[in-house]
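Hello Y.,

Per our agreement to keep a running log of every chain we model this quarter, I'm adding this entry. I've kept the format consistent with earlier entries: sequence first, then predicted structure.
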Amino acid sequence: MVFQAFLDAPSDETYGFALAEATGLPSGTIYPILRRLEEDGFVKSRWAEVEGGSQRRRRRYYELTGEGRRVAHAATAQQRRALRLLVPGWQGVV
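Predicted structure for the entry above:
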């Protein structure tokens, strides 16, 4: 589901909470998955400052690597239609 969400994302880079919303997975599930994908070299991440009202916060952005994109396509190829039905998707997620 996470690979399919990356492949369907409106941009190449997205942050963890947006992926959680797009997949419907809770944060306690999505972040360990993202950490493992990064350790395996399928995802890279970076921290960025985000303006939010009077506060500044940091947000971690994730992006598939070239190898990650190849693996994601291979992993989702046969179940793509079913995965898209299971994954809530990017409606309303910025």
